[in-house]
Amino acid sequence: MANQLSLTFSLIIVLLSLLHLLTTSESAAATTTTTSFIRTSCRATTYPTVCVQSLYTHAAAIKKSPKQLVTTALSVSVEKAQSTKTFVSMLTRFRGLKPREYAAIKDCLEEVSDSVDRLSKPGFERSDQIFN
User: Fold this and answer.
1) Cα separation of 118 and 54, whole Å?
2) Are 34 and 129 in contact (CB under 8 A)?
3) Among residues 80, 28, 15, 87, which one has the least CA distance to residue 54?
4) pLDDT band at residue 30, thresholds of 50, 70 and 90?
């Protein structure tokens, strides 16, 4: 049973990674200076590669503005979290899930939903609050 649960979680992680890769595309409009600014800023994050990939397509809007970088990063995070919530929600409809697997997916869905709620909250720290 533990092996099946581990396999289910591995499948979830692989599918989420594929979802991320499919939604990430490169923009020809980004300049070397802007992408350098994004790369430098993303070095301070836990996952710098994911950070750069997520923000690269928005380089034209970010330019070299820290405020725009924060605003865009928050917006992208909300979009990705909502997309993940939708995906995990669909996993609960899989047939043949054992009660324990279903419970684990429901727990995951609750955590992701909480994250979406926190990121979407009007009181969440926005760039205009950080830079003023």
Assistant:
1) 20
2) no
3) 80
4) very low
- List Cβ neighbours of 27 (8 Å cut-off, separation of 6 or more): 56, 57, 58, 59, 60
Nearest to 20 by CA among 53, 42, 68, 45: 53
> Helix H segments across the chain?
2-23, 32-42, 48-56, 59-62, 66-91, 99-120, 127-130
Please give the Cα distance from 43 to 116 (Å, whole number): 24
Amino acid at 15: L
pTM for the full model? 0.64
- Asked if residues 91 and 102 have their Cβ atoms less than 8 Å apart, the reply is no
Per-residue tokens: 118: 């926190």
AA letter at 69: L
CA distance 116 to 80: 9
What is the reported pLDDT for 25? 45
Percent of the chain with pLDDT over 90: 43
